[in-house]
Design a protein that fits this description.
The complex is a heterodimer of chains A (276) and B (323). Chain A has 276 residues and is of the alpha/beta class. Chain A has helices spanning 7-28, 33-38, 40-48, 75-85, 127-141, 159-170, 191-194, 200-206, 219-231, 265-274; strands at 66-69, 147-152, 176-182, 185-186, 189-190, 210-215, 237-242. Chain B folds into 2 domains: 3-8 and 185-320, Rossmann fold, CATH 3.40.50; 11-177, Rossmann fold (3-Layer(aba) Sandwich). The chains are: A alpha/beta (276), B alpha/beta (323). Chains A and B meet through α5 and α6 of A and α5 and α7 of B.
Chain lengths: 276, 323
């Protein structure tokens, strides 16, 4: 089982994950750096911050907590985190084969190539339903496993998310925690200019969820939110994590261009200097 | 050919009801069996399962996309979920979820479509499913089953539960004739020869199997020797039975309650073309949506009854003989 790392260690890991994301997408010459960078603290908190009960030595442990990257385009961040955790199926030295033929690190998460993934994703809107099924089954099996699912903000424009939200409240799936990576941007630009999500907190509340709002780049805030979510009974929790798209690299921050465009070799060099 | 004594074709239960009853039996034997439904449990007969195993019944409301995702999540934890709804809603509304969440990772989810084909009757085309064989067969790794009667359904629902991997089972609304004796054995991917014959082969599934038998009886009276195969498994096809039919009878008719240009027939034609090209004719729904009406009248109007199959067989035989 992974134990919680210190704040300094979490910060150092976040920087290391960001370097991986830049190098991976740079080498692949394609991919989604912006939404990968915005989710780094969320993933590092889950995998290294004492939230997710998992053991890289025992990936098949039945009572492990599950993590689903519903926003599958954020795959580089998840791959880097799994590699840093030390999962045998996710070798660090192959990270730069992202998106290459035969790589475990496919363009979007693919269980066939990386069996430690809990789900194959990439078509938006589907992960929350999967999490609901996992939560329902774990409860029925008396399995203490909890399920965490990371949603993109643009992703929750999909209608299926709200079908799953209704399901979660009705069936009292309190062993599932959803996180919205609320970086306020999607492929075509700012969320507010494509399809506004606000008022977001009341929406989830109206659907019967326990809602928390946090700074998605603050480890203590994220850890506190996950602790609260674990304690709530009778309804699922959603953590609205306010984030910055492209976080950590000055010229990528809040720049919609880097939703789905990889950094050039020059940009990789600049970014790595900032993340030194 | 003792056809008339072999098949009395007495009316039995609907295949959807046979599914619901079979699921209860399985539920008693295996605590991992679950039912997942989208507000149609009284029509899909999963209400029988819900009554006996309320804790293993998952009500999803009218939300098929979420239902398929939930079923996938249950399967991820070792459950064997049977997600049921009308075929048209399940395969059309949740096709993308079947593709990405179920087929792509190859999860052990069972999908049961009821009210398939045009024999749902009076409800009309918005509820009729005439393309789901095509959709289900386009999902890599899926097994696709279309049982003909209550005996076949019971056996194939059991086979689906035992098979590890995604399965689609196509069932219908109306009561259908009983073809099989209760001890008939069924194996996924193995066609069943119901009538021996050497001039022409009729392959069918679902409620068209009984019609195929009736057509064979009529043709037998004309001195035409007809082989009838129940292709209860559309995927994977029984290529050996198809090859033998092509080689030994040289003429094949495929009859299905489905759009004729995207269903079982085209899959059989592909296999025939690869192994042993022969004359083929196809009975099914042409390039159209049907309409409201009594099931029997609809089947007659849209060309899905024994006389239509017999006519196609005569045509195939004439072509084979170069006339």
């Amino acid at each position: 089982m992974q134990t919680a790392r210190s704040l300094e260690e979490l910060q150092a890991l976040a920087k290391q994950i960001r370097r991986h994301i830049i190098e991976m997408t740079g080498a692949a010459k394609s991919g989604h750096p912006g939404g990968s960078l915005s989710s780094v603290e969320i993933l590092v908190t889950l995998f290294f911050g004492g939230v997710l009960r998992h053991d890289p030595k025992r990936p098949d442990w039945p009572e492990r907590d599950r993590f689903i990257l519903s926003k599958g385009h954020g795959a580089p961040a998840l791959y880097a985190v799994l590699a840093e955790c030390g999962y045998e199926a996710a070798p660090r030295e192959l990270l730069k084969t992202l998106r290459k033929l035969g790589s475990p690190y496919q363009g979007h998460p693919d269980k066939r190539f990386l069996p430690v993934l809990e789900a194959s994703t990439g078509s938006l809107g589907q992960g929350l339903s999967l999490a609901m099924g996992m939560g329902f089954a774990a409860r029925l099996n008396g399995n203490p496993s909890r399920t965490y699912v990371l949603l993109g903000d643009g992703e929750i424009q999909e209608g299926q998310i709200w079908e799953a939200a209704m399901f979660g409240a009705y069936h009292k799936i309190d062993n599932v925690t959803a996180i919205v990576d609320y970086n306020k941007m999607q492929l075509d630009g700012f969320i507010k200019d494509v399809m506004e999500l606000e008022p977001l907190v009341p929406k989830w509340q109206a659907f019967g969820w326990h809602v928390l709002e946090v700074d998605g780049h603050s480890f203590p805030a994220l850890q506190a939110a996950f602790t609260l979510a674990r304690e709530v009974r009778g309804r699922p929790t959603v953590i609205i994590a306010h984030t910055v798209k492209g976080k950590g690299v000055s010229f990528m921050e809040n720049n919609p261009k880097f939703h789905g465009v990889a950094p050039t070799p020059e940009e990789v060099e600049l970014a790595l200097k900032e993340l030194a | 050919m003792p056809l008339k004594t072999r098949y009395e074709l007495n009316l039995g239960m609907a295949t959807r009801e046979a599914f619901g009853r079979a699921l209860v039996e399985l539920g008693r034997e295996n605590p991992n069996i679950m039912a997942v439904d989208a507000d149609l449990s009284k029509s899909t007969f999963t209400h029988l399962f819900a009554k006996e195993f309320p804790e293993r019944f998952v009500s999803c409301g009218i939300a098929e996309a979420n239902m398929v995702g939930v079923a996938a999540g249950l399967a991820s934890h070792g459950k064997i979920p049977f997600a049921a709804s009308f075929s048209c809603f399940l395969l059309n509304k949740a096709f993308e979820q079947l593709r990405v969440t179920v087929a792509y990772p190859g999860l052990n989810v069972k999908i049961v479509g009821t009210h398939s084909g045009i024999s749902i009757g009076e409800d009309g085309p918005s509820q009729m499913s005439v393309e789901e064989i095509s959709l289900a067969c386009s999902l890599p790794g899926f097994v696709v089953l279309a049982p003909a009667d209550e005996v076949a359904t019971r056996a194939l629902v059991r086979a689906a539960a035992e098979h590890v991997g995604p399965v689609f089972i196509r069932t219908g609304r109306p009561r259908v004739p009983v073809i099989y004796s209760p001890d008939q054995r069924f194996e996924i991917g193995k066609a069943i020869e119901l009538v021996e014959g050497s001039d022409v082969t009729i392959m069918a599934n679902g409620l068209m199997v009984a019609e195929a038998i009736r057509a064979a009886e009529a043709l037998d009276a004309e001195g035409i020797s007809v082989r009838v195969l129940d292709l209860h498994t559309v995927k994977p096809l029984d290529r050996e039975a198809i090859r033998k039919a092509a080689e030994e009878t040289g003429a094949i008719v495929v009859a299905e309650e489905h759009l004729v240009d995207s269903g079982t027939g085209v899959r059989v034609a592909q296999a025939v073309a690869e192994m042993h090209p022969c004359v083929m004719e196809f009975v099914g729904i042409q390039n159209t949506y049907a309409e409201s009406g009594p099931p029997e009248a609809l089947l007659e109007k849209y060309g899905l009854t024994a006389p239509h199959i017999a006519a196609a067989a005569r045509k195939a035989l004439a072509r084979k003989r170069g006339r």
